[in-house]
Every structure is written in C-alpha cells, then in structure tokens.
Amino acid sequence: MRELWIELGERSYPIIIGDGLLNRLPQALSDRGMGTDGDLFIITDENIAPHYLSGLEAALKEQGYTVNSFVVPGGESSKSLKWYENIMTEAIQLGLDRKSVVIALGGGVVGDLAGFVAATYMRGVRFVQVPTTILAHDSSVGGKVAVNHPLAKNMIGAFHQPELVLYDTATLLTLSDREIRSGLAEVIKHGLIWDEAFLNWCDEHADALLKLDAESLSYALYRGCEVKASVVSQDEKEAGLRAILNLGHTIGHALEAVAGYGELLHGEAISIGMVGSARLAEELGYPATIVERTQSILERYGLPVRIPKHLDTDAIMAAMMRDKKFKSGQMNFVVPVEIGKVEIQTGISPTLVRSIVDDLKGEV
Amino acid sequence: MRELWIELGERSYPIIIGDGLLNRLPQALSDRGMGTDGDLFIITDENIAPHYLSGLEAALKEQGYTVNSFVVPGGESSKSLKWYENIMTEAIQLGLDRKSVVIALGGGVVGDLAGFVAATYMRGVRFVQVPTTILAHDSSVGGKVAVNHPLAKNMIGAFHQPELVLYDTATLLTLSDREIRSGLAEVIKHGLIWDEAFLNWCDEHADALLKLDAESLSYALYRGCEVKASVVSQDEKEAGLRAILNLGHTIGHALEAVAGYGELLHGEAISIGMVGSARLAEELGYPATIVERTQSILERYGLPVRIPKHLDTDAIMAAMMRDKKFKSGQMNFVVPVEIGKVEIQTGISPTLVRSIVDDLKGEV
C-alpha cells in the first residue's frame, strides 16, 4: 500500500493506492474525520455498479454509515447539466445536509460529475474519490471538476479538492485492453513532461503494467499522481505552470472532437498528440531524438502514433482554433525540449501545425 | 464616497459606496486590474435594464471595453438552473474566456445568479457586483452565490468572492417604499446582532434613511457591510460564527415559504422573525426590554412585527422543521441576549417555538 499526500495547505489530502483496498474505505473515511454522522452519497455508473456498488454499500453500512447511491448511464453523456440536476434533486429529496459526503466510484466522467455535485450542493460538501480506471489517476489530482455543455466540454465546473482518494488497483482488472493502454498514456505523459527516469522505468515495466501487475501498477499510479501533484501544488488555480500537463492535449482534443467521442479513447488521442508535439519540437530546432523516444515508448504500449487517415485536416485545424487555448488567434503549444522537460511555446504558426497534422496522417 | 476593504487574504476586495458612482465603473475596474483585455459580461434583469444598462454599456465601451449583456426576467424565478444554463450558453457562444469578467447589475437575485455563473464558467472567472437595492448590501459581503432548486432555495451554489463591489446610492431612488423598508430591515439586523451604537444611529436617522438621504444611506450601507464583514472574515465558509447573521431568518424563511414568495418581502419576513427571536429570548430568561427595543425600531421603519393571521401555524412549523438548520430534529435559534449581541441557542423545544408563533399571530 502506498500513500501520497497532496500538499495544498488546508485542502491537503491523501491518495492511498494498493491492491484490494476497497474494503478499507470505511476505515479510511473515519481516519479522515468523516464519521457516521455524515450521510454518504455514492455516485457511480451502470458499468461499475454491478461490480462494486453493493459490496461497498454493505461494507459501509456494516460500520454504521448511512449510505445512498445514484447510478448514471455509462459514458461521457452523463457529464451533463441534466444528470447534474437529477442528482441534485435526489440529494435534496434524501435530505442530505452539509455534513454529507459525496463519493465518486468510477472513472473520470463519474469523478468530474460527482465532484461538481460536491462542489455546489449547498455551496460545497466533502468529496471522496474511488477511481476505477487508470486514466482517473490523472483527474484524482488537481481538483478540477466539471460537466460538459452541449457546445463544449468541461465549460461548467469548479475547483474542489477531495478529502481522500482511495485507489484499489484490483478494480482495474475489469478494464479492457484498450482502456488499459489508453490510461497508461497519461502515465507516460507524466514521465515525458517531468521525469526521464520514470519514463525509463515505464519502458522497462511495460509488460508488467500492461498485464496489470499490482505492484508495478501501484508504483506507476503513485508516481503519476506525484508528478501531477508537483505541478498542481505550484499552480492550484491554473495560472501558468499547470499548462504543461496539457502536453499532447491540443491535437488530442481536436482529434477526439473530429472523430466523434468514442472512436478514439482519450489516451489514444493524446498519444497521437504527444507525437505531434515532439514533431513540432523538432521543427522548432530541438533534437529529433525526442520524436524517436516519444514514438517508441508509445508504440511499446500499443498506442496509436498516427492520425487516422479519414479524419479531415481542415476539421482538425478548425477544432484546434476553437480550443480555448487559442484565444486571439495565437497558437500556444506545450513542446518537449528534452526528454522529461517541456516548455510552453507561444506564437506557433497555424501553417506549421497544419504541416505536422498532414505529416502525421501521411506516414500511416 | 466611502471605501470598505473586505479582508479575506488573497480574496480581499473593496466595496465602494457613494452617490452617482455608476459612471466610475470603468475606472474602478481598471484600478482593480481588470483591463480592456478581458471581455465584460453584464447580467441584469428587465426591471433594472431600462434604467441603467445602456448608459453603463456606453460608458464602458467608451473606455475601450468589449461589453456584452444578458437580461433575465425580474423576480426570484430567474434564479434557476434553466436561466443559469441559458446564460452559460450565451457566454460560450460569445466566446468568453477565463479573462472575462461577469458583472451583476441588480439586486440579490441577479447577484446570486450572476455570481454562480462567475463561480462556475470555465471553473471560475472574475466577478463584480453593482448592487441596485438596499437588501443587496447584505449579499455583497460573504461570497455566497446560488440558484434555487424547485424543491428548496439556494441549494445549488458556491462561495465566490467578487473582485469589486460598486454601490451607487443613486440607483436606489427607483426602489418602492416597501422595498426600501424591507432593505433597511437587514441594516437594522446588523445593529441588533453586533453594534448597539449603530442601532441607535439607525433609530435617530430613520427619517433620513426612509427618504433615501444619500449621506445617511451611504453610512448605513457602509456600516452594515462592515458588520457583516467582521463576522464573515472570521468564518468565511460558514462553519460557526457566521450563523449569527441568520437572526430572524429561521422564522422569516418559514413565513416566506408559507405565504408564497412575494406576499412578504424578505426584509418584512425577517422583521417579524427578529421579533420572534426576541420573544424567544424573553422566554429563555433574557430581559423583556430586548423585545421592546427590537419591536419599536422595526415599527419606526414601518416594518411588520406580527405574523399575518391567515398563515397557518402548522404550515409555519413544518416549514421550519424542513429548514436545513434543523437536521436531526434539534432546533437551533439565534437569539438576542442583549441589544447588539446574539447567541446561538441549541435544543430549543418546538413546543416553545410554536407558542411564540401563536403569540405573534394572536397579538395582531
């Protein structure tokens, strides 16, 4: 079992990672000052609920907790104002008060949605995350919570730190191969932006991680969270440094939008985006070895490194220009300047970006 | 012109109060670091817009600001998730980004709604309040923002401090007599809970305040904000002390709910509630002079001090028991223990409260 303390002054909290931890949730809640006087409200989705919900509820009730739960449909469409309102209605009807604790049991969608409920129910109640995907290691640090607007993702949200993150690596065994690879893309990203030694470790432990070896997975999630925490603790409200976490996300978000959410998983899209950023670095005069290293580790994890040919270049460019990071026509990019170090480069010409997009399609 | 600095660490902000200040908004924005690189988004209602919106927009545009506005219907019904979503849609379509500033031009409803938009648009943008009612002096301190849920008021919200509050007492001249009296009830409350000398001043200046004498009004708003700020700065997130601001609100909210919103204005309802709290204090052994003093100053301002006979006692009691302050069946009340000082009393018997409600109806 590993414990990582996210240092954010009075909003500090622990991330506890290990194999078979789910049944420790009652004790962990109690250790963090969330006793049985506060009602628990578990928010999960219909994919996760059949595996873990009834067991978790039983374990909590046995320790004297009052437990209610709300199950949303699986997938991104639940991260909407409509489901947010449905959950709020249920919370009010249940009579939940300010002592209540919202628990997110699931991946990033459930975490974001439940977190926004916790951030705004009665102006904020306590929040606990129980992630069940690898990708969620990324969203379990940073306090970003949100729902989507039909016109754009994550436009409605808040910063709301959890009191506790409990990460049971055993819950990851139900993930598909593709979800595992996609989730590990964010782990690799944390190596690329911050820590070459960790990237090397990821390279050496690729087989173990892809097989979900509990010990390797526990360390990878721990170190991924730790890197993100190092960045976030220096920039809690996203004023500057935090932007480096977006390596690969500018192209990645555009690909997700153009492909239609679901065709490319998030990690797959940012995998391609990270190769694009490395290509951009090369064009800007940084060593070509960055491209080779980025591409080889992603390929080792079976992640895509080229843009699917049927995606329209104009549409990809248009999606990037709409991205909130390109206000006022300026294009900013996070680019790797060496392995384990990135910088934000401003004033990138759209023509250059377009040539890289074309290139990433042509080389398939 | 008076300036009061609300001290909340890095979230500190000034409240500027004076006669004819509206045209100083461009300068005040600039002084607070909100330059023309951030788009302004004014949220107001259809009662206020005809008086001030076009003039304010023109003054801001003249100084180089990009200004957009959104007009909601007047009244409490605009403080809904539906209008919140409409405003979010407009903000996204306008392409507002994180540098944008949301300006609330109006009373408490507009302030709460616009504040919740500012708290959650792209996870939070800057917020400025331009209150146009006396009552809004109360909501301009404390950072509480919210929308209503059909099942209960203010259930969905956040804490989001403004960067600036600009209070032009000239905008109060369009208020009706009843709105003026109702607004002054919260001013009097601040005297009752915190400052006997200020209560005496309110007594002496009743005629001037009711006539909206600019100098008296400016001081009353200043001191009212200052009292509230003293309480809030010791308890920003409403953990304890801040509850004393609810003097009169427990009975008051129940009366508003039972009468149907609109029959009793908020200040009228809490006026009756404050007399009820004083009666409760008397029953608990505190001097009867508290009741006399409370009642006489409220009567002096033409505020109601008795519960309208047609309101059903059972319904009033039921509304109070539903109130979030009475979880677990315990009744807590803010009671005046002397003039200018209140305490939170727990374990009040519902039977005693009921006898006071009956009493307040019977003595009409």
Automatic annotation (TrEMBL), chains A, B:
Reported cofactor(s): NAD(+); Co(2+); Zn(2+)
List of residues binding Zn(2+): 186, 249, 266
Enzyme Commission number(s): 4.2.3.4
Gene: aroB
HAMAP family, per database record: DHQ_synthase (MF_00110)
Domain (3-dehydroquinate synthase C-terminal) ranges: 183-325
UniProt keyword annotations, A-Z: Amino-acid biosynthesis, Aromatic amino acid biosynthesis, Cobalt, Cytoplasm, Lyase, Metal-binding, NAD, Nucleotide-binding, Zinc
Known function: Catalyzes the conversion of 3-deoxy-D-arabino-heptulosonate 7-phosphate (DAHP) to dehydroquinate (DHQ).
Domain 3-dehydroquinate synthase N-terminal: 70-181
PANTHER family xref list: 3-DEHYDROQUINATE SYNTHASE, 3-DEHYDROQUINATE SYNTHASE, CHLOROPLASTIC
Family: Belongs to the sugar phosphate cyclases superfamily. Dehydroquinate synthase family.
Compartments where found: Cytoplasm
CC cofactor note: Binds 1 divalent metal cation per subunit. Can use either Co(2+) or Zn(2+).
NCBIfam families membership: aroB (TIGR01357)
Gene Ontology MF term list: 3-dehydroquinate synthase activity
Protein's recorded name: 3-dehydroquinate synthase
InterPro entries: Dehydroquinate_synthase, DHQ_synth_AroB, DHQ_synth_fam, DHQS/DOIS_N, DHQS_C
Pathway: Metabolic intermediate biosynthesis; chorismate biosynthesis; chorismate from D-erythrose 4-phosphate and phosphoenolpyruvate: step 2/7
Coiled coil: none
Superkingdom of origin: Bacteria
Pfam families per record: DHQ_synthase (PF01761), DHQS_C (PF24621)
